[in-house]
Amino acid sequence: MACVSSLSLTLIASIFIVCAPGRSSGHISYSIAEEMEEGTLVGNIAQDLGLSVQQLSARKFHLSPDDGGRYITVGLDNGVLSIRERINRERLCGQAEMCTIPFEIILENPLEVYRGELVIFDVNDNSPAFRESSIPLQISEAISPGVRFRLESAEDPDVGINTVADYAISASEYFSLETRRTEEGIIIAELVLEKSLDRELQTSFQLEFTATDGGIPQRTGTAQILITVLDFNDNPPVFEHDVYRSSIKENIPQGTLVVKVVANDLDDGLNAKLTYSFSGLTSQRVHGVFSLVPDTGEILVEGLLDFEETKGYSLDIQAVDHGSPAITGHSKVLIKIIDVNDNVPEIKVKSSTNYVPENAPPGTLIALIDVTDRDSDKNGQVRCEIPQDVPFMLQTSSSHYKLITSETLDRETMSEYKVLISSWDLGSPSLSTNKTIHIAVTDVNDNAPRFAELSYNVYLLENNTPGTSIFAVTAFDPDLEQNSYVSYSILNNNIQNMPMSTYLSISSMNGTIYALRSFDYEELKSFQIHVQARDAGVPPRSSTATVNVIILDQNDNAPVIVSPSGQSGSSAVVNMPQSVSQGYLVTKILATDDDSGQNARLVYQIMKATDPSLFIIGQTSGEIKTARNILESDSTTQSLLILVKDNGQPNLSSTFSIQVTILQNSTDTVTESGNLVGSPEYPSDLNLYLLIIFSCTSIVFLLIIILLIGVKCKQERNITQEYASCSYSYKRGDMHSMTNRKTTMEDTLRYPGTDQVVRMPGLPQYSVCLSPESAKSDFLFLKPCGPPTS
Ligand SMILES: *[C@@H]1O[C@H](CO)[C@@H](O)[C@H](O)[C@H]1NC(C)=O
Ligand SMILES: *[C@@H]1O[C@H](CO)[C@@H](O)[C@H](O)[C@H]1NC(C)=O
Q: What distance in angstroms lies between residue 469's CA and the mean position of ligand 2's atoms?
């Protein structure tokens, strides 16, 4: 091929040979294509100069050894110019437009010098070439269409049309190529961005870049344009969900993962590296409750949740990429808090007085009670009750409970209540709360002071010291304080026409009763007082008790000899006939003792006698009788000393002396007037019986009258209310009544009480029978009226 082409080139070259040889100093020019084979004929110089072959050798025809001597040679014998060494135009002349090899032909005899030149024509023997086979190019996806990127040129050492004539790139919708020629004829290729790039769509392009020359045949050179689309942070992070929803129980432990949010960024590298955070829209209170891990998007429970406080949270979250500028994507997380029965019911007591008077009627409002539970639904529904048996109950009203009394209260039974109120919710498990309300029952003066007994008997020895306490009554008032402060008083009434206050007094403070005078049993045997106890309440309450004061007898009265009455009072003279036989009643000693009982039980005895064998005395009867017949030898005047003593402890006694005169004349009966005892036995006895009969009829008559008037008094008593007046009577044996008998009788008639006789244990009962007929002496003898004494 090369041979053929070179031949053809030779032909063409020969056309260009300028045949202008001059005989002297002529200029000869030949042209030949580069890259001709060694020995290729360029031209026949001798012929062109018109020299014969003989002349050549004769005239020493030769080529000047300068310059082109390396590439060309002349045949010295035939004058033919040929290629000595293959000529590379590009090597020889570079990019020069004209490439010539000058030479000189020298002839001698005569010396002639011919200058010539060999023009080397360019042959398209080089292809355009790029420095590198791939051309890297980075284009940001943000670059707008129309922007040009200058591409490096390809090189072709050929010249003229054989050098680079055009560029092209492989087809692409994104890129086109534009070329332009500079004034110097340099072709500049520019890559034009036709369409916006999207790294997210296509990250790189490979274009074939072709450079072509204008030679025939055309030669080309290619390189690969490797376009990398650079990421531009043009994509926002996008969350997987517009809204994330999560439900968690309010008692979820801290650190628990609630939800993990994920956002995606289509960008690359830092532009796609995301950081999660709460956005500015998220309220501050969320921050302490939830945390968002910036790298992972995990939302964790950080603080305490409370359904009762917040039923749900709305978190605005964002994901920010690390591009510059950064782009933010948003989403929302809705967290619903589920109620757990974590709140105990709460009992609130409102407007509690804590006090209730004991006379409050059932239904009295004590307190309003609110029971609440902060939980919701069943967990928040509460029930309430009083589990104990107390006189209180709960009444439901619209929004609360009323604590009211269910029964009447009595402070004296129960002064304070601790009312347990129990409430529970309907959650499962149920939670309960208890609350105790203290309710004090306040006192009302509903109790009168109460004496331990309705009536007291006070036994008091007569001759007591005035001013000493004799008894104490106590009344107890179960009320409180003022209502229980008891003061005592004696209800006024009269005793023997004297106000009670002169007899007794009572300490209003403590109920101690003092005797104000010394009592005399013989004067007053018993009386009754009414003691009132009264509290200090408003209004006060009071009660009364009866105190029976019973005066006990003391042996303070010595027996008194009543009969026979002697002139001197302590002695008497009695006559008796000498003829009397043994057992003759000489006289009867009658003595009385104002005391009663044993203190009044008298014993008679002869203490001293002129002749102790002559008389005996009846120990209890006091009858002095003869112990034997009177003898002539017996003294006519016998004196006896009689001792009368009572049975008291210690006993009291009186003595009485009797002069017995024994009369010789048996018919003489000496009776002293008024001296009944001194009469002979028979008439004396008769008198006695008469007296008894009369007395008894009188007493019966008296009793009938008393009974009649008693009925009347009872009727009157209802009107006059002179309670005390009818309640006692004077003893008929009373000394007082004897001296004021008429008054006494009138009193008795007017106020006929019961003939009260106080019974004392172990003491026989005595009463002195009154003889109203007796004018001379007040009464005559003592006789048992009740059951006879032994
Ligand atoms: C409240 O009282 C009820 C009944 O007396 C009892 O069952 C419950 O355990 C109590 N609750 C508390 C919290 O003490
Ligand atoms: C009762 O009260 C009086 C004063 O009124 C007092 O003198 C007396 O000591 C008191 N008695 C007692 C037992 O307290």
A: 9
